[in-house]
Specification:
The chain is elongated and about 80 Å long. The chain is of the alpha+beta class. α1 runs antiparallel to α3, α1 crosses α12 and α10 crosses α12.
Length: 416
C-alpha cells in the first residue's frame, strides 16, 4: 500500500462552497438552518447531496429507514467498505455545520480522491444517517440505532412528533423509503467528522480533537400531574401545582450533576406546560432531564438520584409522577487503532491536536457496536452549537477534513 504525502490536501474552497450551498436549504431566521428530519427541507437537502454524489461517480443505496449510502468502488471486491458520514438534519434553530460537515467532508474526501486519481483497496461509503438530532422524533440517533440493532424498525417508525405525525408516514411522504434491509451492510470501519459542539479545542488552541471516548446519557421524560386551578382564587395551601414540582426537580437535577463532578452534566431541556395559561395553575407538566457522563458508575448513580428526587418532590406536593426513559446509550470507547491512525494523520499534517471526550451523542456511538469506529473534531467558535449562531472557520473545516482524508486513505489502503 502507498502512503499519502503531507502535501496532499482536500479542496478547502470547494468544501466551504458546498457547506454554504447546503445551508440555503431550510434556512433559519438568524443565519442558521431549520432542516428538521423528514420535512420537505430534509428531502431537498437529500436530493442535493445525492446529485453531488452522482456527479462524483458514486452509486447510491437507501435503506428502509431512509439512511443514505453513497459508494465509491475499491479495487478488491471482497474487501469491506470504509464508512464516513454523519447527518444532514438540523435542530429547529440549528447551525450550518453540526452533522453537515461530517457528510460533506466525507463527500469532499471522495472528490479529492477522484481529483488525484487515487484508488483504494477497500470501497469507501459516505453516509447520511436519518434523524440524528431527535428534535422532531425522539430519541436521537434513531436510524443508526435501528441499523445497530438498538431499536426495532417498528419502534422507530411508530415514533410521533409534536403534531402526532408518525415517523414512518413522514418518511414515506417525502419519498425516502429505500429498499435495503436496515443493518444488512457490513463495515470495515467508520470515521465520523464533526464540530466539537463545546469550547475545549478553541480554548486550548487546538485545531483537531481526536475523540477517544463518548459520554453516556439518559434522557428521562417526567410527567407530573396536579390539578388545574385559578391562580387568583385558589389558596396557596390548597394547590396541587405541577409547575412547582418541575421547578424543584430542575434544581435537584443541577445539584445532582454538581455532586458528581468532575465529568458529569445535567439539565432540564424540553418543557411542556398544560394548560399553559397565564392565570391557571399548571395541572400537568411534561419535561425532559438530560444527564451525561463518560463514567458508567456516575451515569447510573445520577439516574437513580434523579428518579428518587422526582418521586420525593411529587409525594411532598401531592403530584402524580411518571418517568419514561426516552433516550440512552452507555459511555463509548472508540477503537484504539483508529484513534492512533487519526493522531498520526494530524501529526503528519502539522495540526495542533489533543485527545478529547465527546460531550454529545453521535451516530458513531451506535456504529461503534458493529465495527471499529473513531471520530475527528474541529473547533467551533465559543463552543456554541444547536444555535443559529454556530460558527466555524473555513480553515478549521479544511483541517478536520484533511485529517479525515489521510486517515481514511490509510484505513482503506491506497493502491499504486
Amino acid at each position: 500500500m502507498t502512503a499519502l504525502g503531507a502535501n496532499q490536501r482536500i479542496n478547502s474552497a470547494r468544501l466551504w462552497d458546498s457547506l454554504n450551498e447546503m445551508a440555503l436549504i431550510g434556512p433559519g431566521m438568524a443565519g442558521g438552518c431549520n432542516r428538521q428530519t423528514l420535512t420537505d427541507e430534509d428531502s431537498a437537502g437529500r436530493h442535493l447531496f445525492a446529485s453531488w454524489c452522482k456527479a462524483a461517480g458514486m452509486s447510491m443505496g437507501v435503506d428502509t429507514m431512509g439512511n443514505m449510502f453513497a459508494s465509491r468502488a475499491g479495487t478488491d471486491p471482497e474487501a469491506l467498505p470504509v464508512y464516513m458520514g454523519s447527518h444532514l438534519d438540523t435542530q429547529p434553530t440549528g447551525g450550518r455545520y453540526d452533522g453537515v460537515l461530517g457528510v460533506l467532508g466525507g463527500l469532499e474526501v471522495v472528490r479529492t480522491l477522484n481529483d488525484l486519481g487515487i484508488k483504494t483497496r477497500h470501497p469507501i461509503v459516505v453516509t447520511n444517517w436519518t434523524n440524528e438530532e431527535g428534535a422532531r422524533f425522539a430519541p436521537a440517533m434513531l436510524a443508526s440505532g435501528v441499523f445497530a440493532g438498538i431499536h426495532t424498525e417498528d419502534y422507530a417508525k411508530g415514533r410521533t412528533d409534536g403534531d402526532g405525525k408518525l415517523f414512518g408516514a413522514e418518511l414515506q411522504r417525502i419519498g425516502w423509503v429505500g429498499d435495503e434491509v436496515v443493518g444488512a451492510r457490513k463495515m470495515h470501519a467508520m470515521l465520523e467528522l464533526h464540530i466539537e459542539q463545546g469550547p475545549i479545542l478553541e480554548a486550548e488552541g487546538k485545531t483537531i480533537g481526536i475523540v477517544t471516548h463518548g459520554q453516556g446519557l439518559w434522557w428521562l421524560e417526567i410527567t407530573l400531574t396536579g390539578r388545574d386551578a385559578h391562580t387568583g382564587s385558589t389558596p396557596m395551601n390548597m394547590r396541587v401545582n405541577a409547575g412547582l414540582g418541575m421547578a424543584r426537580i430542575t434544581e435537584r437535577v443541577h445539584q445532582i450533576a454538581m455532586s458528581h463532578q468532575p465529568g458529569a452534566v445535567g439539565a432540564v431541556g424540553q418543557v411542556k406546560v398544560f394548560p399553559n395559561s397565564r392565570n391557571v395553575i399548571p395541572g400537568k407538566v411534561v419535561f425532559t432531564v438530560d444527564i451525561r457522563s463518560p463514567d458508567q458508575a456516575k451515569l447510573d448513580a445520577m439516574r437513580g438520584e434523579v428518579e428518587r428526587a422526582a418521586a420525593a418532590v411529587s409525594a411532598e406536593l401531592g403530584l402524580g409522577c411518571a418517568i419514561e426513559a426516552v433516550g440512552h446509550f452507555d459511555p463509548i470507547t472508540f477503537d484504539p487503532g483508529l484513534v492512533g491512525i487519526v493522531r498520526g494523520a494530524a501529526e503528519k499534517l502539522g495540526y495542533a491536536h489533543m485527545d478529547i471526550i465527546s460531550g454529545a451523542g453521535h451516530d458513531a456511538c451506535w456504529i461503534n457496536r458493529l465495527a471499529p469506529t473513531v471520530m475527528v473534531m474541529c473547533p467551533c467558535v465559543g463552543g456554541l452549537s444547536h444555535n443559529e449562531a454556530e460558527e466555524i472557520s473555513p480553515e478549521w473545516a479544511a483541517a478536520g477534513t484533511d485529517v479525515l482524508f489521510h486517515a481514511v486513505c490509510e484505513v482503506a489502503g491506497v493502491v499504486g
